[in-house]
Design brief:
This protein is α/β, with parallel strands linked by helices. The chain has a single domain, classed as TIM Barrel. The protein has helices at 2-7, 42-54, 64-67, 71-79, 99-117, 133-141, 200-205, 208-221, 231-234, 248-255, 261-274, 282-289; strands at 13-20, 59-62, 83-86, 123-124, 146-147, 168-171, 174-177, 180-183, 187-190, 193-196, 224-229, 278-280. The protein binds zinc ion.
């Protein structure tokens, strides 16, 4: 497989992805009284506008609870060549769900998106990267062809840890078991720590000088890069009202840096172009590597 990649130009691949959820799906707001009528999903349109401006593909992991209201949007995305994948149903962390229930709910989430779009959904990403090997095997059993929930940043309290033993390494951070692929989210190893360099809150909150330094270091030796982002991070709308039952750090974490997210995203794309990365989707890369 490595030989195949060596013969096929370009050799380096970048995948931009969006986890399509609203602001209130965040784990930090579990059990909080929130105004769920207030939406920040306009960030999805802003993201697509940027992609179209730069002619870059993307994969979208959609919550099935939003699939009905986003049906026409999903069809529009698909007709423009973007990939639709599954982000579960209501954003409950899989590791909080008994595995048998997780399987039933995930099969239903996949089916709902497929029924509403008429498309086959190949990919899955766990809410909050909350997945273990038992549940990864259920993702395979449910008929998905790839997962992108493996994240080596172990200091995040919500993330899971996936034992990938038995998978073959195709290239660094891409693993394969028969026809099923695991695409690991990018982290930079410094000493014994894995530092996130893959977007989300890290891109939004950290200063650009630091982010650009970390991503540049990562790209120097990498042949594969994954970035993820959420609609609320690109929303033009004001932050929702959050009362004192939401902790101050959470309110800060949620609202900081949104005004510069798109600028930073465009800068990351420039870095990737400078390093000759080819932009693709998970499904297309799976086809290339198959
Ligand atoms: Zn999510």
């Amino acid at each position: 497989m490595t030989e195949l990649l060596a013969q096929t130009a370009p050799k380096k691949y970048a995948i931009l992805s969006m986890d399509v959820e609203d602001w209130y799906h965040s784990d930090y707001f579990i059990d909080k009284k929130l105004d769920r009528s207030y939406s920040m999903l306009d960030g999805l349109d802003r993201y697509v506008g940027m992609l179209q401006d730069l002619q870059i593909p993307s994969s979208f992991f959609v919550l099935s609870d939003l699939a009905k209201s986003l049906q026409s949007k999903m069809l529009e995305l698909s007709s423009c060549g973007y990939e639709l994948a599954c982000h579960g149903d209501d954003h409950t962390r899989p590791l909080l769900i008994p595995s048998k229930d997780f399987y039933i709910r995930t099969v239903a989430a996949k089916k709902k998106i497929e029924d509403l779009t008429g498309l086959s959904v190949a990919g899955y990403r766990a809410p909050s990267f909350s997945l273990d090997r038992e549940r990864l095997d259920m993702i395979r059993k449910a008929g998905f062809l790839y997962d992108s929930s493996k994240n080596a940043f172990s200091d995040h309290p919500l993330y899971g840890c996936i034992d990938i033993s038995g998978f073959d390494k195709v290239v660094p951070n891409i693993y394969r078991a028969e026809n099923f692929f695991e695409f690991e989210v990018s982290t930079l190893k410094i000493a014994d720590k894995n530092i996130p360099v893959s977007g989300g809150g890290y891109l939004r909150i950290l200063p650009w000088w630091l982010t650009s330094n970390l991503i540049t270091r990562y790209l120097k030796d990498a042949s594969f890069y994954v970035l993820f982002i959420h609609p609320f991070e690109l929303s033009h709308r004001a932050a929702p009202y959050l009362d004192n039952t939401v902790s101050f750090p959470t309110r800060m974490r949620f609202s900081l840096g949104r005004s510069t997210t798109e600028i930073k995203l465009r800068k990351v794309i420039s870095l990737l172009k400078k390093e000759d990365f080819c932009f693709t989707t998970f499904s297309d890369l799976r086809q290339i590597l198959k």
